[in-house]
Specification:
Blueprint lengths: L13 H5 L3 H14 L6 H13 L4 E5 L2 H11 L7 E4 L6 H8 L3 E4 L22 E5 L10 H11 L2 E5 L7 E2 L2 E2 L6 E5 L13 E5 L2 H11 L20 H11 L2 H18 L14 E2 L5 E4 L3 H10 L29 H9 E4 L7 H17 L1
Parallel strand pairs: 2-3, 2-4, 4-5, 5-8
Antiparallel strand pairs: 1-9, 6-7, 6-10, 8-9, 11-12
The structure holds pyridoxal-5'-phosphate.
The site of pyridoxal-5'-phosphate has 15 residues, from helix 4 and helix 5.
Length: about 375
């Protein structure tokens, strides 16, 4: 987790969010300890109901991570060895892990320059008889362009799986993401828009049978203790994480509104710089998980920000098709030029609900100083 603290503007400040909630969090954790409900339990069950409602979904099944939720999600669709899943190379590696864990093969397609998301116009040519699903990522909180992807799914009889790990509460054409396809996976890793105090994730779906089987798969493939219907996993959410997430969920909409405020202020202040600023498509309301700017001199700008105590980060410096772990897939540099260029130019600025106007102004001033000096 990146929590680069500095005297200037930290990249992320989880303490600022925790401070006003501390009493409520302590009480929720104490309740879990008193109940001894360490694995799943009543707080997790309540959180599942509340998060399903937040996503306007029929069901939410809590997991110990977003990666496990996506892994089980693909198993529910009977995806396995010999199958292919089309996805983006510009994402955190866990999107691809979920595919690889099933034995299926990730097939990458290049992204759109403006949104960093899977480019629907390039997907159809990657579909083969082995393709079972398309898995877009709502990267940095900005929804992927879902309608053309859903059209392709209908045309080729494929499943759509949303990797919603970074996009809690984002909307596509006015509807909250998470139930556009068969199912979706969310992450509650601490730095996410809704972060646990440890690991956590959730599978969200409108399909009751999927939810029932997901509950079994996360708990050793059993619906009844010590009776195992299929090979399962220990993917349960901890009780304490359910309690923490229950407290934090009540604030999520306000936090998203604040992230929006930060993003819009950056957009105003940085409008006359040579940076390529993040674009919100007409169909989207981003959850603004990250604010990623672009510039060919990204590395120098990063050094300049750090020298001025402004935290920043790279999401992501190397696209997945060029990662050593995926060398066996046989991709090479140049295969996905848009994703590769984005990786060379991207720079994530501080964005979190507690960021003050003065901090936003300071970050912008330091950036302007870089271009003046140049
Ligand atoms: C796009 C994306 N997919 C999947 C994951 C996996 O989530 P987790 O870290 O909870 O396993 C993450 C989280 O980092 C992510 O950013």
């Amino acid at each position: 987790m990146t929590t680069e603290k500095s005297a200037g503007v930290p990249y992320l400040d989880l303490v600022a969010q925790m401070r006003p909630l501390r009493k409520e969090i302590d009480a929720a954790i104490a309740r879990t300890l008193d109940n001894c409900s360490f694995c799943l339990g009543p707080d997790v069950a309540q959180f599942e109901k509340d998060f399903a409602k937040f996503c306007a979904a029929g069901h939410c099944v809590a997991f110990n991570s977003g990666t496990s939720a996506l892994h089980v999600g693909l198993l529910l669709l009977n995806i396995g060895p010999c199958d292919e899943v089309i996805t983006t190379p510009s994402t955190f590696v866990a999107t691809s892990w979920a595919i690889s864990y099933t034995g299926a093969k990730p097939v990458y397609v290049d992204i759109e320059d403006a949104t960093f998301n899977l480019d629907p116009a390039k997907v159809e040519s990657a579909i083969t008889p082995k393709t079972k699903a398309i898995m877009p990522v709502h990267l940095y909180g900005h929804p992927a362009n879902l309608e053309p992807l859903l059209d392709l799914c209908r045309k080729h009889n494929l499943h759509l799986v949303e990797d919603a790990a970074q996009a809690h509460g984002a909307t596509y054409k006015g509807k909250v993401i998470g139930t556009f396809g068969a199912l979706s996976g969310f992450s509650f890793y601490p730095g996410k828009n809704l972060g646990a105090y440890g690991e956590g994730g959730a599978l969200v779906t409108n399909n009751a049978a999927f939810a029932t089987r997901a509950r079994s798969l996360r708990e050793h493939g059993s619906a009844q203790r010590y009776y195992h219907d299929e090979i399962g996993f220990n993917y349960r959410m901890e009780g304490i994480q359910g309690a923490v997430l229950g407290v934090k969920l009540k604030h999520l909409q306000n936090w998203t509104d604040s992230r929006r405020r930060v993003a819009h202020r950056y957009q105003e202040l940085l409008a006359d710089t040579p940076l390529q600023l993040p674009h919100e498509a007409a169909y989207a309301e981003s959850a603004w998980h990250l604010f990623v700017v672009r510039h060919p001199r990204r590395d120098e700008l990063k050094k300049h920000l750090e020298a001025n105590q402004v935290g920043c980060a790279l999401h992501y410096p190397l696209p997945l098709h060029l990662q050593k772990a995926y060398a066996h897939l046989g991709y090479k540099a140049g295969d996905f030029p848009v994703a590769e260029k984005a990786a060379r130019e991207c720079l994530s600025l501080p964005i979190y609900p507690e960021l003050t106007d003065a901090q936003i102004e300071r970050v912008s001033e330091v950036i302007k100083g870089f271009f003046k000096k140049a």
